[in-house]
Amino acid sequence: MTTTDVPDIRIPSDLRPADGRFGSGPSKVRPEAVAALAAVGGTWMGTSHRQAPVKAVVASVRRGVAELLGLPEGYEVVLGNGGTTAFWDVATFGLIVARSQHLAFGEFSAKFAAAVAAAPHLEPPRVIESPPGTHPGTSPEAGTDLYALTHNETSTGVAMPLRRPEGVGPDEALVAVDATSGAGAIEFDPAEVDVYYFAPQKVLAGDGGLWLAACSPAAVERVGQLAASGRWCPPSLDLVIALDNSRANQTYNTPALATLFLLDQQLAWLNGNGGLGWAASRSRASAGTVYGWAEASEYATPFVAEPAKRSPVVATIDLDGAVVDAGILSAVLRGNGIVDTEAYRKLGRNQVRVGMFPAVDPDDVAALCACIDHVVAALS
Ligand SMILES: *Cc1c(COP(=O)(O)O)cnc(C)c1O
């Protein structure tokens, strides 16, 4: 669509949210965090990541993640460069012994499965799929050494509970969870997972480029076991190297310092306000507003039919095509400073998608719903 096709609809300023960022990643970065970054712009930015000031921030990030997620004794927070997508390759080399099982229910979960399927050193993975808008369950299988789950499928707005496969302990198989858009806003029991990995540009309101992984003792043991097996691994994807560097509060190669700083700010904000329980309740409040509005609406419907599977952090809302074109709606919103409500492109639905991460004010989410009603009325 070109800008000339977008109807010129001005939303009254008293209806508009105070902050118009509703992206599902990158997501709203709190202005306070950006101001804090600017304040260290001349002293901390542009200094060595091998020196104490930056290492102190990495240490604070590792502590902050452990606190926020309530990690038990013995779990370690590891980090490296390249975001979650790079971590899939890290896992392909450093966590899967031979055969993995993947729950694929959207773009991101399917991508990890595809990366594993293409790896010549592994057996073909078992991939259990379910239609978009739902999630499958694990199926315990002998010979499977890693189960790949996704806490929140960002492309479809489906969240799933995290549980070890029935009767399968960490000594037999690891449970690895892509929590990129869930970590820090959805409660879970860390004892049910071995590798809980994510990136900072979603719930953690930082910027992209890093991966982080909370690793159980069984996961750390697996890393050592695979290293001892002599399997070749590119150094930039090597979990042994990443683990060694993380323990020294460093990364193997140069990280983006601004990303680390913003991440540390957000962790402090979440932990200072009450931690995971508080963050989850803030996102739940926003989700209650959006799903409640859609259910009451004549033209909007939550895409995820089963309420228990609806994500508390990413709402996908189908719109009646006879009433409104979602692409035009999102473009009008964008023209009013309300951005990134576009649906996940490959899902191909007449839909809006709303990021409801803890950084987003629940009042702004309510304002967004009112703005959508306003624009739809103006369009019809
Ligand atoms: C955003 C996202 C990714 C990709 O993260 P990158 O850091 O861009 O690689 C992977 N998985 C999920 C569930 C996501 O939401």
The name of the CATH superfamily of the largest domain reads Type I PLP-dependent aspartate aminotransferase-like (Major domain)
Hetero groups: pyridoxal-5'-phosphate
Helix content: 25-40%
The proportion of residues in beta strands is 5-15%
Structure description:
α2 packs across α7, α7 crosses α8 (275-296) and α8 (275-296) runs parallel beside α10 (362-379). The strands form 3 sheets. A 7-stranded mixed beta sheet has the order 1-9-8-7-4-2-3, with helices on both faces. Strands 10-11-12 form a 3-stranded antiparallel beta sheet. The model has no long low-confidence stretch (mean pLDDT 97). The protein is an alpha/beta fold and 380 residues long. The chain has 10 helices and 12 strands. α4 (107-117) links the parallel β2 and β3 (126-129). It folds into 2 domains: 3-29 and 276-379, Alpha-Beta Complex (Aspartate Aminotransferase, domain 1), CATH 3.90.1150; 32-272, Type I PLP-dependent aspartate aminotransferase-like (Major domain) (Aspartate Aminotransferase, domain 2, 3-Layer(aba) Sandwich), CATH 3.40.640.10. It is globular, with a radius of gyration of 21 Å. Residues 25, 83-85, 108, 150, 154, 178, 180-181, 199, 202, 208 line the site of pyridoxal-5'-phosphate.
